[in-house]
Amino acid sequence: MLLTSKYSLPDCPEHTLVRPRLLALLDDSHSDQLLLVTAPAGYGKTTLVTSWASAQENPMAWYTLDASDNEPSQFCRYLVESVHRATGKGVPQTCRLLAAPQSPDPTTVISHLLGELRSLPSELRIVLDDYHHIDNQAVHSVTRFLLRHAPPGVGVLLTSRSQPPLGLATLRVQGRLLELGSDQLALNTEEIARLLKQRLPFNLDGDRAAQLHHLSEGWPPAVQLFALSVRDRQEVDRYLTELEQGHSHILDYLAEEVLERLEPELRELLARTSILTRVNAQLAERLSGRNDGQQLLEEAARRGLFLQAQDSSRQWFRFHPVFARFLQRQLTNREQLLHLHALACDSWQEMEQPVEALRHALAGSDRERLCQLLDSQGEILLRGGQSRLLRDCLEWLGNEALQQSARFTLLSAKMARENFEYDQCEKMLATAESWLQRQDPQQWRQFEGAFATMRAQVAIARGQTLQAKEYAEEALGLLQPNQLGERISALLVTGETSFCLGALEPAATHMLEVEALAIAEGDIPSAAWAICQQSEIAFAQGLLQKSASLQKKVSNLVQKHHLSTLPIAEFVCRLLGQLQWEKGDLESAEHSARRGMQINRKVGEHWLLPEYTLLLKLAQARGEKEESLEWLARIDRLLSDGRYHRDWVANADAARIRTWRALDNQQAIASWLEQAAPVADRPSNHFEQCHGRNHVRALIELHRWSDANRLLSRLQQVAEECHLVTDRLRNRVLESHLLWLREQHGEAVEAISESLLLTAGRGFRASFLQIGKPLIVILKAALERGLDEASTDKAQVLIKLAQQQPELDGGIRIELDDTIIREILASDAVPDFLRHSPLTPREWQVLNAIHSGLSNERIARHFKVAPSTIKTHIRSLYQKLDVKDRQEAITLAEQMLRSVQDRP
Question: C-alpha distances in angstroms, 215 versus 223, 322, 483, 601, 821?
Fold first, then answer.
């Protein structure tokens, strides 16, 4: 009796995710190829092949194998029956041969089968599903014979958890082998997002989907369990935490599908080596006490046990993180576990891998090894971006150990500073200084200059520029010749204080000095930081091309020295994204923001404020209301929970105020203005200037135009004194808008004309577009009055960009003046009767206000007239437009405004 289910094509599971990229690969294969689909349990091998096979027009013979098929005669019977049924009973002679009293030789059976298939009128695919159950060499020989002698038009597709021993090298060389492995079968971020959109009752944001992809590495069961387990947004973080720690349902699945099938010696080796982030034969043998480490690692990888080779020579292997966490649960003997960590720590030190060694010293609670590694490698590891690991180590050591070691105190203080924990940083320094001066004055004298350097860095981060300068000068006088790292840091602070005080040229000179010294010392992160500062200085000077060149230089340096996962790489992405946004390259700016988020996500969401801000600005530029609100909510949450440098806060506030303005949320703007820090007396750098403009924008929206004008004049005076060209430009554009609102049109045109001259050959765009649709009116008025050729070209480009920039609510917004009204009247969208009975300028303005959704009361307040006056204008307006009510007026206004909007 043959089981029908073994030779029948399975049904596709309900809610199967369609995977076009993989189906296309299978579709592009040809029939004389072996299609080999290999991956560990859960990767959807059978589901993929089933969905592909069910869509094929040619016959498809399906054979699902299990352990009982290791008997050659049974293998042949099922194989022949599958082919016979798939081809419409097309191999009767082979069936009769199998029915003979004496079982024929398997090779004879396959020869007869292939002979009958030569006359098949169509192509045939034979699917051998779950081939990893086969471990009988006799059955492997039958399969090899089938592959070697299959006639044209007959192909084989084989799914397996392990690499089958079928001698595939020849097929591979001949180009007759198509292989899909776990890398291809793993769900990518786009597929995860599609699956969750189908299965979840709410929309999951892209960041959480990316985090799920990172933790699961695209392993489908983890993603499917997420879709089944998470019913609302509040459960998302809980599941992700459980996945990182080892979700119980996943552990049960792996125990049943994987662990129970392993031999004891292989199970033991995998468990012992699972504590390693990567493993080779030397480590495997050291931790397992065996001498066949390479052989067992190769065997585990071949059998598809979530162990992947990391190099072409197959010397290094890596566990899938979900499987590693599962294996670690098998190490229940704590003494054995601590011993394994000690062995691993010593082994990694011998291999000169301090990061790995320190991880195991901490995991094994080994104070002696941990202190020795921190003392010798701590500074190097900190520069290498290992803040989280170092923080964990120092917290485990405790406060008493920190205060007794100046080196450990400095390490901890640097990480506190980087995480904006300035009070904590100063407290650590003060506590350690007090103890060292009393108990170990010799150690204090050795590190006094380093403490002054650290205090200078804290002061500059707090915005205490003059105090930072004093500390840096003190540090440079105290530091010993061998303390080059601290000297570089002190010089960096000196350069940053010059930048903050508006001395751009001296600041650039300092940063060039730091760059050269850091390169000579081999301190590449500090050199990269100095170049980034030079790029910021050039941007402040309005030298966008120079800024871009410096960014390219630092990007090459980061890439050359493999620093792409360190915080400095995020700084590079951030600067690049800001420059791309300014130039109007929104797609590239988004890519830079996402890349920065990817780098910084590992150190916590707290660090993602600059990227969230840029993504909010991009969503605004695209008119994406829901996206804007999502990023706004995240920014609000971060700002309410933490402290940040004024630069980050000012940029975030600028984006928030623009969003509130677009949504007409004056209450939020008024609340911000009431709580915001005051503007500096002398805003001599780009972030104080930005903060000042935020105040100006808020004052404009609240109709406090005189206050806005006074503050803007102060900002512009300081920007001119400090040669802050970019801020001069942005201030002048904002001033043009303010003047236009105050109906000082001549002065507004003069301001925008000067702004256009400032941008000659510089590539500024976004700085103009921030004032929104009023830019169109002001620029058209400037064109009417006359501009030079370069300014004319720039104005026309900016008008087009402003016209194409959508509003967050999807509507049309455009300020009306005589120029725009003449354009509207000249268009075909205007009814003829309106040309004969034209609207007055005030009626046009009222129509525009009605179209913007303002109530009569709001319109009256805007124009500073009585509500009865507005009602009179509206009655006259309706009569001239020949409309009955407000909705008809809005519809007609939309039609006419679109005629000059040129919106795609």
Answer: 10, 8, 40, 12, 57
Give me 618's structure tokens. 């991009």
Task: Return the pLDDT at 819.
Answer: 65
Spatial contact of 21 and 194, defined as CB atoms under 8 Å apart: no
The amino acid that residue 559 corresponds to is: Q
Q: What is the DSSP string of 74-108?
A: HHHHHHHHHHHHHTTS--HHHHHHHHSSSPPPHHH
In order along the chain (904 residues), what is the average pLDDT of each group of 10 residues?
Answer: 85 80 88 86 89 91 92 93 92 90 88 90 92 92 92 92 86 86 89 84 80 82 77 78 71 68 81 89 90 84 72 78 81 91 94 93 94 92 84 92 92 87 92 95 94 95 92 94 90 94 94 94 92 96 95 94 87 95 94 91 83 95 90 93 87 96 91 95 95 96 94 96 96 95 92 92 90 88 91 91 73 57 69 71 79 73 80 85 82 69 42
What are the tokens at 442? 């010799």
What dihedral angle (degrees, nearest 10) is formed by the CA atoms of 514, 516, 517, 521? 130
- The residue type of 301 is A
The C-alpha atoms of residue 482 and residue 462 are separated, in whole angstroms, by: 28
Calpha distance 91→115 (Å, rounded): 9
How far apart, in whole angstroms, are the C-alpha atoms of residue 339 and residue 360? 10
For position 145, what pLDDT does the model report? Answer: 93
Identify any residues that bridge with 471 across adjacent strands, giving them in sequence order: none
Give CA–CA dist 463/471, Å, rounded.
13
Instruction: Order the strands of the 154-160 sheet from edge to edge.
Output: 60-64, 124-129, 154-160, 34-38, 177-180
d(CA 387, CA 574): 20
Cα torsion 390, 392, 396, 402: sign: positive
For the full predicted model, state whether its pTM sits above 0.90: no
201 touches 172 (CB < 8 A): no
Q: Residue 716 corresponds to which amino acid?
A: Q
Query: Which residues, 6 or more positions from 325, have their beta carbon under 8 angstroms from its beta carbon?
Result: 244, 245, 246
The answer to whether 142 touches 106, Cβ cutoff 8 Å, is yes
CA dist 380 and 304 (Å) reads 37
Predicted local distance difference test score (pLDDT) of residue 902: 47
User: Which residues are registered as beta bridge partners of 372?
Assistant: none
Distance of alpha carbon 596 from alpha carbon 574, whole angstroms: 6
Q: ∠ CA(244), CA(248), CA(250), 5° rounding?
A: 75
Tell me the two tokens of residue 723: 């040669």
Per-residue pLDDT at 903: 38
Contact 411, 447 (CB under 8 A): no
pLDDT at 452: 96
- The CA distance from 407 to 405, in Å, is 5
